[in-house]
Amino acid sequence: MVHFDPDLQSMQEMRDAVKAAKEAQAVFAEFTQKQVDDVVKAIADAAYSQSEHLARLAHEETGLGVAEHKKIKNEVGSKSVYESIKNEKTVGIISEDPKNGVTEVASPFGVVAGIVPVTNPTSTTMFKILISLKARNAIVISPHPSAKNCCVETARICLEAAVKAGAPKGIIGWISKPTMDATQSLMKHSDVNVILATGGGGLVRAAYSSGKPAYGVGPGNVPVYIEKTADVKLSVKRITDSKTFDNGTICASEQSVVADRQIKEQVVKEFEKNGAYFLSGEEKRKMEAVISPVPRTLNPKIVGKSAKVIAGMAGISVPDNTRLLIAYENNVGKEYPFSIEKLAPVFAFYTVNDHEEAFSLCEKLLSLGGRGHSLALHTKDKELARRFAIKMPVSRLLVNTPSALGAVGGTTGLAPSLTLGCGTFGGNITSDNVTVKHLFNKKRLAYGTRELDIPQVKQADSAPAKSAVTKEELEEIVKQVISSMDDPKQADPQKIIQVVKETVSALQN
C-alpha cells in the first residue's frame, strides 16, 4: 500500500481547490444580479433545511456546546444572514448620485480564503459562503482540524445547491484534511484575494501578516454591568441564557459580571434561582487550576463543556441542575484565571460602588483581552448607556439583551454575522459585523461638476540679475591679495581685479 504524506496531500488539495475556484469565479463574475440571487437563495434554503443535521454533526465531532443551540446558530448563519443581504445590489451599477455626478459600480474581490473555527464550525461555514457568493466571489474553506468533517459536509451541501441553481462547480472549495501549513499557504496563495479569518489569536495574526487584505477578528472578554436601575430578574435571566448558550462558545458571550453594590444580594439570589452555583474560597482555588493549568492561558479542555462537567474536572460536587459556576473576584489580570476569557459557563463576579468604578473595571477587563469586541449593559438609564458607548473601547455596546445573541444580530438590529470586527481597538481593519458589503470593491464613475479657474503664473523674460561685486569689495580683495604676496611691489592691481571679476562671474553662473 502506498502512503502519502498528509501535509503534501493537504497542500495539493488546497492548490487544486484554489485553481478551480479561480476558474469558476471568472465565470461567476459575469452573472447577472438575478442569477447571483438565485444561487444565494438556493444555498441559504439548503443550509437552513439541514440546520439540525449539521448541528448534530458539529456537536458529535467537536464535543463542544449543545446540539440544540448549534441548530439556532445554523439558522442565524443561513436564514437570518440571507434575509439581511438578499436585497443588496452587488452586480453592475449599485448606486447613482445625479446631483454630484457619481455612479458606483460593484466589482468582486475574486477568491476568498475562509478560515473556520472549531467553536462555531457549521454556522460560520454557511455564513462565509453566503456573503462571499452574494458578492460574486468564490471561496475555499479551511476548517479547524477538529471540525473538518462537519465543515466539509456543510460546504458540500452548499455547493450542491449552488450548482443546481446554475453556479460553476468550483465556486465553493475546501480542504478536507487541513493542516497548519496548508492553511497558511492558502492565505498566502497568489490567487487568493482576501482572507476571512475566524480563530485563535495566532491564526488571526498570520492572516494579517500574509500580505493579503484580511478580515481577522479579535477575542472577546465581555464584561456585563448590571446597573442599579436594571430589572434584575429579567437581566439575570438574559445573562444566564446567553452565557449558557452553546456552553459559552460564542466569543461575544459575557465573561465577567459587574454589579452595583446596592443590588448585589438581589443579583446573587436571581443567579441562584437560574441554576448558578457560587464557589467557596477553596472551590475557587480548585477551579482556577482547571481554568488555567498553565499560568496565564486558558485550558482548551473546558471550552464548550457544561458547568457540571467542568466542576467534575475540579473535583467539585454541584447539584444536577447547575448551569453556571460563579466565583467572587476582586482582581484583574492573566494571573487571575476567572478574569480572562472563558469560552465556557464560568463567571467572575465583581462588585462596584458607582458608575465611575464600573467604567474603570470594565476597561481593565477589556484590556485584558477583549478590547474592541463587545460590552453588555443592563440599565434603565439611557444617558448612562450613551456614556458607556462614548467611553468604552468596544465596537458593540449591547443594552438589555443577551450579549452572545445580540452581538451576532440575533436579538438586535445589528447585521447578522459570525465574524465580528474589533476595530483598531483590537487590531482589526473594521469594527463592523462583517457582511457582504465588506467583500466587493466599489468602482466610482465621476463626472466633472464644476470648472476651476487656474491662475496663470507669469514667467519672467530672463533670470533676475545677480548682484555684482561692488567697487569697495574689489578694492578690499585687491588689498588682501597684495598684502599676502612676497613682493607687493610686483603686483598689478588691474590684473588682480580682472581675475576676481572672472572668478565671481563663474561662481554665479
UniProtKB/TrEMBL annotation:
What CDD domains does the database record attribute to this sequence? ALDH_F20_ACDH
GO MF terms, alphabetically ordered: oxidoreductase activity, acting on the aldehyde or oxo group of donors, NAD or NADP as acceptor
User: The Aldehyde dehydrogenase domain covers which part of the protein?
Assistant: 12-408
Q: Gene3D superfamilies, per this entry?
A: Aldehyde Dehydrogenase, Chain A, domain 1, Aldehyde Dehydrogenase, Chain A, domain 2
Please indicate if the UniProt record lists Repeat as a keyword: no
Quick check: keyword Oxidoreductase in the entry? yes
Q: Under which name does UniProt file this protein?
A: Acetaldehyde dehydrogenase (Acetylating)
Q: What's the source species' lineage?
A: Bacteria, Bacillati, Bacillota, Bacilli, Bacillales
